[in-house]
Amino acid sequence: TLAEKGGYDHFMEKEINEQPQSIKSALAGRIENGYPTIKELDSIKDFIKNDLEKIYIVACGTSYHAGYSMKYFVEAYSNINISLEVASEFRYMNPHVDDKTLVIAVSQSGETIDTLEGIRLAKQKGAHVLAMSNVVGSTIPRESHSVVYMNTGPEIGVAATKTYTAQISILYAIAAQIMNWKGYYTEEVKKIISELELIPDIYKEILSKKDHILELAREYTHYKHMMFIGRGFGYTASLEGALKLKEISYINANGYQAGELKHGPIALLDESFPVFAIVPFNGLREKMISNIMEVKARKARVIAISTKGDEKIKKITNEYIEVPKTSEAISPLTVAPVTQLFAYYVAILRNLDPDKPRNLAKSVTVE
Ligand code: G6P
């Protein structure tokens, strides 16, 4: 009913717009004065400090993309390696997991069968399993050694939105806690963690531009294909941007590392194949500008997400959306509401129901 949807047309729209509050509740009590305070990790503090040698993140779909940002964050600011695996691969591999390994299972529903089987395997091999889920008492948390719940409230739309941004936020807080205990809590890490607390206000600003995003989406509804490109944290954001679009609009969309264009994907491009470039203001911006020029030389239309005030990106793209400047590591969070709204508007302009995409389920409990 309309009441359940809080006056919005769809749950997906409601959940996108809820993100200033959902991030706030996800982070409540978990960051204080620039330091992580995740009490659920206290019982494994000694394990992390003294024994931990390896970290795996195991997840599917959007949860996997949230894990990707955590991997980039931890590896950028520490010497800790993270192996990131899609659960349906992990469970049939010979993962090098032992009693010095922390396996982080990221699952919004806590019921995804591949992720569940992945943690069962990890437990057999002696790993410590930490689950992150939005559903209290669901199977994956019940079978894990430790649990961090997301506290974002139920998500009804099949395509994950508010739980994705909550996952990144909490995974960053977990990452910070681990880096702190492992002796990597630099000023840079502290700054990033402090910026997490600004996300609710940043989201209000981004969401206030939704009419602009609707107008841009109108320009892209008739294409059959679309490519999302980025580098570094922009790459992890491009994976999720492409997934959202394909899930609910059925436009063939894939995310690529912009540097990989020349190794294949660029062969696809022409005027019928637009590119969504994710260009937060960072060390790789100049490289992204070169990639955009290459794409334009193939006559592909370019829409970009850039940082406020980036005049150069405005000049060289057909359409652009600006987001506030943050640390680079935070950019997957500033990009997300834009690509979510973009996918949502493309879907409704194509007369599709974004809450019930064909062939997809909210939670995949059979293999
Ligand atoms: C399904 C959903 C996705 C979700 C994925 C993993 O495919 O449609 O939105 O990302 O499962 O779900 P989980 O509950 O494990 O995060």
Strand residues, percent:
15-25%
Outline type: globular
Radius of gyration over C-alpha positions, nearest whole angstrom:
20 Å
Please summarize the sheet with the most strands.
5 strands, parallel
Helix/sheet category: alpha/beta
Number of helices: 15
Bound molecules: 6-O-phosphono-alpha-D-glucopyranose
Order of helices and strands: HHEEHEHEHEHEHEHHHHEHEEHEHEH
Q: Uncertain spans, ≥5 residues at pLDDT below 50?
A: none
Strand order of the largest sheet: 4-3-5-6-7
Q: Quick one: how many beta strands?
A: 12
Mean pLDDT across all amino acids: 96
- The rounded distance between the terminal residues' Cα atoms is 32 Å
Which percent bin holds the helix content? 40-55%
Task: Give a description of the structure.
The protein has 367 residues and is of the alpha/beta class. Helices cover 44% and strands 16% of the residues. It contains 15 helices and twelve strands. A five-stranded parallel sheet has the order 4-3-5-6-7, sandwiched between helices. A five-stranded parallel sheet has the order 9-8-10-11-12, sandwiched between helices. Helix 13 links the parallel strand 10 and strand 11. The longest helix has 20 residues. The relative contact order is 0.14. The mean pLDDT is 96. The protein binds 6-O-phosphono-alpha-D-glucopyranose. It catalyses: D-fructose 6-phosphate + L-glutamine = D-glucosamine 6-phosphate + L-glutamate. Keywords: Aminotransferase, Cytoplasm, Glutamine amidotransferase, Repeat, Transferase. Homodimer.
